[in-house]
User: What shape does this take?
Amino acid sequence: MKRIIIFLVIVYLVSAVGAWALFSKNMGTNAKISRELKVAKKEIADAKSALDTEKATLHTLEKKVSDARINATFLALAICPALEATNKNAPCVKNSTEWFSQTILSGTALTDPEAKAKMDSLLVSLGSTKKPTAKQLYEMLKPIESGSLKALIEDLK
Assistant: This one.
């Protein structure tokens, strides 16, 4: 009977030590996995924030390109009569009514607030009973051109 009790105590101790060793190994592995998981989560969070920053930068650049196109289109149309006067081969709109309507349409989309305000006042003056001549219209477009050019330069920076 004494041998059975000693045997059971030894089996119990071996089982307890084995269970403790298995538990310790398992806890060590869990701790290692937990650390690796935290590192992976941090890397994913960093990658996400970098991606969000890139998206914001891309959106800003796309807006600048879009604004630059709008301002460049207006400038190309507004400067057209001056080019036509100096160069008969200038790629201008030959029909003055079409040129005028395209210039007005592109002028309403200007991105520079000052140039847009000048364009709005030009549109108001066009609605008056006395219509400006082509030369007067071109003179009215000159200050708007400078604002549009300033906005275009800012967009291209």
